[in-house]
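Why show two proteins at once? Because comparison is the fastest way to build intuition. When a single record is shown, students tend to memorize it. When two are placed side by side, the eye starts asking what differs. So, the first record is below.
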Amino acid sequence: MTRVVVLYGGISAEREVSLASGIQVIAALRETGFDVDAIDVGHDLGAVIAALTPKPDVVFNALHGRFGEDGAIQGVLDWLGIPYTHSGVRASSVAMDKEAAKALFLSAGLPVAPGRMVAIEELQASDPLPLPYVVKPVNEGSSVGVTVVRGGDNRRAEIVRTWTFGPRALVEEYIPGRELTVAVLDDRALAVTEIRAVAGAFYDYESKYADGGSRHIIPAPVHPDIYAQAMQVAVAAHRALGCRGATRCDFRYDDTAGEPGRLVLLEINTQPGLTATSLLPEQAAYCGMSFPKLCAWMVENAACRG
């Protein structure tokens, strides 16, 4: 019987999301027939390595955010020679770095939002882009720290005062319209989902993970050309970064001036959420793949460089 260790929890701002993902993954893998152990990852890396001795056949990486999604734990598992789910060190680290990922997307000819990196103090003095624009941490996921700055809201000073994400920020043009997402399993795009935040216009952390915080419409009711383009761009982004296993690309679709409109790639997630409200499991189910089968597929496609 294949022995799988699930890593979940972690020390990032997305710890609670990872705990929720891990609990579902553990149950699904046991249902499928794997011998499953779990490690709630904390600050003591030595304890994690000790818990991985003797080596399992596969590590299921259910960590999100920094140190779990940015290549750090992937490097440890490569060093130990343990196959693991999702992308490797390089793809994980590049995807988590919005500046680096955007540069690769541009070089691959993919549609991205105009923007630039700024020192966070620049916001104190003036707007770095025409309003409205979006301020993003460079190395966070799940919309942690993301703020939309609109005309007349006078939020720049507050953003600078409460900023805890390093000396720089990515500032991008705000793309009006709708939120779309596409999951990819290796080279196969699954579907296009439209996400409608219930509480407000911005799909923030609460909208993503709170029960009832958003509505997911699958297949997305968009122009057929945009649907096809979103599927193609998601696979192209997956390939451009050298990802493996499961990823999910997030898009903005501006149809405010009519169809077919404009599709913009926001980011790629190399550790898509696996919670009760997550999008990847929904799209897999839409394609006829149950959650246990999805988790088993990830285990069966695990790899490492070790």
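Second record. Ask yourself what differs from the first in the token line.
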Amino acid sequence: MALRVLAAAALSAVLMFFWGFIYWGPVLNMTARLMSPLPTEVELDIMAPMRAAQLPDGMYVYPGPLADMSDEEAKDAWTKKFEIGPIMHLAYHANGVSPMEPMMYMKGLVHVFVIALLAGVLLTMIVHTLPSYASRAGLLILVTLIAALWTNVGNVIWWGHPPAYAAGQIAYELGAGLLMSLATAALVRPRAAMAAQV
């Protein structure tokens, strides 16, 4: 069974990786459909001060988090900033990187392999209760749906992510999860089903 789980994870990782290329890359180009560039006329106004301040890499938010929730004056000022806007989340990396950096792609492949491996391990725990291909695939698709909705809808509610962007992320994750589910359900089967095929 362990070899089947590893084979399922490897196959799933390849399928998920190429789905990402299709979805975010030149075929569907969802990157351009879901994200907007900074307007040229404000780009330098935003980037120049951040570069000049030599900010370290990190997640920056505006309004920033309150260090002391008991400071009523600071809390009032923070609340007003929230009410007036804008509200912003910025994943900031001071140094650039090539968009075709091989190590980035390798990390992406390892990431989806680990996700698929965990899905395969989960399936082995209850595979004896799921004799049909549809039941096994259905379980993993449900797990994918839970994960996609949990993170992305949560980001809309709590962090102000645009609903269209969240919907695009959900579509990508469901597509990748569907491919993983179909491949894993085909390879990770109850022992009785494997014996029947021999």
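One difference worth noting in the second protein: The chain has two domains: 2-50+96-197, 58-92.
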